[in-house]
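User: Could you check the structure of this?
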Amino acid sequence: MAHSHEVEVLLRPAVELYTVAVCALAAIVCIAAPWSLALNPLLGLANATAFLTLGAVRLRQAWVVLRYRRSIRRLPRYVMMSRHVPVSQERQFLGRGFQWDQRHTHRLFQTYRPEFRKYVEPPALYLLARRFEQRLLFSPPPISNLAGLTRWDHPLNPVRPLPPVGGLPRLHGIEPREVDVTLPLNERVGHTLVLGTTRVGKTRLAELLITQDIRRGEVVIIFDPKGDADLLRRTYAEAKRAGREREFYVFHLGWPDFSARYNAIGRFSRISEVATRIAGQLSAEGDSAAFREFAWRFVNIIARALVELGQRPNYALIQRHVINIDALFIEYAQHYFARAEPKAWEAIVQIEGRLNDKTIPRHMLGRDKRVVAIEQYLSQVRIYDPVLDGLRSAVRYDRTYFDKIVASLLPLLEKLTTGKIAQLLAPDYSDLNDPRPIFEWMLRIPPMSAGDSG
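Assistant: Sure, the predicted structure tokens are below.
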């Protein structure tokens, strides 16, 4: 059985225009001088109608070719005011486009063939206009102003430059009939990856999605490592336009005086998350893995003690007790004995009074005498408290060995607690004179947040 396959070639001369011209001429003759064709006026009118109908069909076919050639060469301008962005509670508007199929693959392949190059590449007059503008770029004002004639963005200008929207015209031109593209909101629960080179519209797409989410009243969190100021301004403008500017927060380490404050370890569902968030930044390759695990355990001990003491963990407190674990051990012991064994402190004071350089164990040398006294008291009595036992195991390490193990942890904590950054990452909740807001994910996720991870 024979199958018919339509051969589509749109990158070609619009030969249909010849037929249109002949049909138009024939129609004029049939109406103006029917006698020249041996026709009476009525038959002349009928023939003119037939010629005009055929000419209209061929004109439509020619228009398809001309429009396709133009769209392949010139990227269409697509402009939408922010207030005109459609917002729906069921679908997400993505812009305009089309569903790609085999036809578009064939058309795109044709644009790269040498015989069709003249229909795809800019014409010589267009290139000449661009070179003319470059030559006038560094000319004095009266002459340089002439370049504005060729840059005039109007349909009457045959050499006007392409609109500054990025992208390849051929990718859009292979389907002139684009439609609005939307996505069901329930499909957004999955991840979406947008790939593209510089200046092809990735940020503009992000702005489109952000605008709709803000107006729907949803939580919007933006992580922008590049620190795009235009994106920040657009996000704030949309928040203000939607009446949510009071819910807008910016976290930026580069602008600590204006940034919101964020305690990354102040809220958690499990206390072990504090150690995981800190130790997770350390290297886990090779021999560093063992030090990372020890750092995790050590930070976890400190975090548990702080919570039991009613203190909110932050980087500054963690660093302070990493450097001097003795103070935390003494403070927690006082807290525990005051609640569980009020008379224990008298025995600890007596033990402390009997201590000297000869009676202090070798592995406890360099420790505060009260730390040594508490440790010796705990070795004499049977007390089980997981936090106290953890602190006790930490102070029993040799001081020199202990410092070597936490050496990988201290540089990280110093980076997070140095200068004005410390005010952002370890905020003072009791400072009522600081107007910068504090946001925490577990307490209250801010309805709007723009961030810079740098």
